[in-house]
Amino acid sequence: MPNESEFDMKYQKVKKKKNIKMNFNKFLKSLFGDKSTRDMKLIQPLVEKVKAVSPKIEQLDNDALRQRSKEIREQVQSTVTEQRARIAELKATIENTPIDERADIFAQIDKIEKEILEIFEKALDEVMPEVFAIVKETAKRFAENEETIVTANDFDRELAADPRKDFITIDGDKAIYHNHWTAGGNDLKWEMIHYDVQLFGGVVLHQGKIAEMATGEGKTLVATLPVFLNALTGNGVHVVTVNDYLAKRDSEWMGPLYMFHGLSVDCIDKHQPNSEERRRAYQADITFGTNNEFGFDYLRDNMAISPADLVQRSHNYAIVDEVDSVLIDDARTPLIISGPVPKGDDQMFEEYQPLVERLVGVQRQLATQYLADAKTLITEGNRLIEAGNKKDGQEKLDQGFLSLYRSHKALPKNKPLIKYLSEEGIKAGMLKTEEIYMENNNRRMPECIEPLYFVVDEKLNSCDLTDKGTGWLAKQVNDAELFVLPDITSQLSALEAETGLSDQERLDKKDEMLNHYAVQSERVHTLQQLLKAYCMFNKDDEYVVIDGEVKIVDEQTGRIMEGRRWSDGLHQAVEAKEHVKVEAATQTFATITLQNYFRMYHKLAGMTGTASTEAGEFWDIYKLDVVEIPTNRPVIRNDQDDRVYKTAREKYRAVIEEIVKMRNAGRPTLIGTTSVEISELLSRMLDMYVNPETGKREGIPHQVLNAKLHQKEADIVALAGQSTNGKGAVTIATNMAGRGTDIKLSPEVKAAGGLAIIGTERHESRRVDRQLRGRAGRQGDPGSSVFFVSLEDKLMRLFASERIASVMDKLGFKEGEMIESPMISRSIERAQKKVEENNFGIRKRLIEYDDVMNKQRTVIYEKRRHALMGERIGMDIANIIWDRVVNIIENSADYQSCKEEFLHVLSMEVPFSSEEYINQPREQLTENAFQAVIESFNRRTERVQTVAQPIIKNVYENQGHMYERIMVPLTDGRRMFNIPCNLKEAYDTDSKSVVKEFEKSILLHIIDDSWKENLRQLDELKHSVQNASYEQKDPLLIFKLESAKVWDAMINEMYNRICSILTRVQIPEMQQQVQEAAPEQRTQRQQYTESKQQIGEEQLTDPNQAAAAHQDTRGQQPRTPIIKDKLPGRNDPCPCGSGKKFKNCHGKGIV
Q1: pLDDT, tens digit, for every residue of 328-345?
Q2: Where does 578-720 show beta strands of DSSP type E?
Q3: What is the pTM of this model?
């Protein structure tokens, strides 16, 4: 046994220091209060106002209650009547204002729209107490009454006509709201009433903050308060969930509370993308949906070719459920709509996979040999030291630990190595060796890794070839330079200094060097990704192979992430490793990260059980404050100290013993794991359990929850708090599984001590461990939590095990014995904090990469939206022309080149003489030239209108009944464009709409084409700049500088193309026989009919892009159909109470 007194003395010294520190912290807290206390003091007066107005609301009958909410809604919306009227006035003046003077009008409109948002916020703050009281009273009446009867209105009748809305029926002129209905496939009875702590949470969410509330405190109910309040503006509220089951369930569960007061509710995940039903879902006052679908709809909207394709409104207010999962864990996940690229299947992964497989095999043999040598040398060294020969013994130990360290750097996930490192003194000895070679900025590290073929670093998630590895590869392919990156900087410098070359020869040589470097860079990158696939990604752990496809498995929940692919070629590398079809490279058409999507909202709020550990990140990135809401009842859960074992085998044996102990005590057990693999291991151990008293294999009944089916997930978690015949239920779940579903305890379980939480490993994030602990102790329930840890666990191996290992070795711990103390638990939490800080650093750096693209995306999507809607298109064209005029005058070397650029880009003679070009001030020259170009442009557009109008007038007046849309041919002299136009609109506007449609079509096509190419170049740039680290340069800095150049080049090219076409537009001789245009199409593909004239036609839409925009890039979820047997018969009375037959009322078109 270990020396207990020695450990106790050490522990008491540490405890004394901690007590001094804790007493000082308590003194500061008593003097100034902590953040949570200060937050509650600010919110308390607002909650008191709600409680003060509640008696008045309680006296209202049901009809009066609904009438009061209607009055408040009208009151809120009337506060901006004046501003909206002013916007309407300004918009009415746009068409009659010269193009170059419209910017001021739009600036005024934008300013007023911002004012409207501020006015709404003030109005909502004023009515908040009464609105919260109305919501609270409505929930109370639903809970206390089987039926809540009101006078039926049209909205009630519409609801009753939908057979899926079983919470309402119509009886004559009365609408009956029942207190039980179907939600998430289950019949639920409304039993919830808002507590004071939920009022606190509602205030926090309305203020645009994060409410941290413990499990079981009713976060879903809390959200009803700010959602209802903010929906009164009519600008829309989005409630964001982590999966589609919760989105559908919550919209159906909470929906009747809102609909009782006339607020419309829908869920986007119930409807197909790009559908009219999804557009209506966004038009609802309250819209539920998953984070991914909100983001994808934003991307689809920015690939739309018609305003009719748009589904989203402006981003007003969003509440994100499980905000830590969405805005921290998934924040960097890019949502991508992509399509195939030319030669996308021309990749090197399959070519070099056999070579890398052989290289990994050679390294594995080497690592195994080093491990065997290490065991022999360390054993021999210890024997010599025990025999008194310290010098030779220490020399053997040094050699042994060096071999061990080399084996670790070669293959750190090698299981025999991990097993050996858990033995007494081994890990500590290896870490001392590592310190020696890392001294003085890794000065001796090359000496250490020289014999290896490549080096694997788990902490940095990297695999890098060594010189020996490069040499081995060179021998295999008989080419010493094949896998070596050339020193491109030195080569280019030498080329510049080389004499005797013409400019063309120098340029050709430079292109040849850069092309060679690009190929070599791609080859080295392919090798690195293949090495990473073999050494750091294990089948059935990080991914699975199903039907010949590599599918990513979520590490925390075990869900198969349909449609997700690792980026940067890693997925293709894993496919090559597994000998399945390597998918062709794709090109990004549209992309955004969740973090940048949610930063677009006017007001953002969130709720979760654990956010305080990430409070700094929430504030830095989203400017979201985290407010801890006190529990309704005190938490009495017993959180025990971690139990630390040397090996994983000992730990799992102890876990099984603890499960049996809890089960026999009548306490249900929830076992939290960090991966599906561990869940399945424990499941097998429970199945194989042998009763030590009888010696018979009995097995322990249990459920395994890997969170692959949300419906099953909810059912299993709901039963996890029960007991049968005095035996507690046993449930194994990944730490993140079952979120959003409460574990409710039976009275027998509460009496036995409540739910027992057993963690099988410390997660690298304290937040996830707190989530697991929070599953017990709900609403003052009894319970306990404890974590079992081994020195072989990933977190311990990387950060914390050396100190704990040395303590256990000094105290003489034997196999199977554990160490348990607050000091150890705090040490583990410090290790977690290190990981969190490291992850935050990585996220911050990735944010900077993403922000570069985000700034560009914001500009492009704004220009695109202006072109699509048409309202500001004239102003944008004027700005483009101004930009081109400035660019030509500033960048022309002389008058002649300026003259050529005016002809090439703006299709006109230069509007000034050579004397004016030399002598006139640049500002005046630019302004005069701009006015001349605008006049020329206006003359051309007026000419188009003049030629088109007689024919359009003739067609409309004589054949208007035959056509709704017609084709109008336009040309720039090189290509022919057939533009579909609304005949009546063209007639009413004297053909102005024809010109506008043409401008819109050209801008949309060129913007999309340019942005797609820019995204491709940024993808290539992000990959190529990583090699800058080999030259001791910061890849991020290089990326920012180079991306700015790419952006400038794209803008120049885009503006030149736009001006070149728009300033040349003319209408060819129109035939009297008019061609009818097809009805306006949705986003599947653009309907620009090609002309039969042989001028050189241009297709204005990439078919791959159009197809990708229509595609849902994730796995399709089954849609809930209307069940026929729920519908009334054709001749039955309509449920809406209209008195008509169902087939003639709401059943029209259905039955």
Answers
A1: 877 777 788 876 655 445
A2: 586-593, 603-608, 626-628, 638-639, 643-645, 669-673, 703-705
A3: 0.73
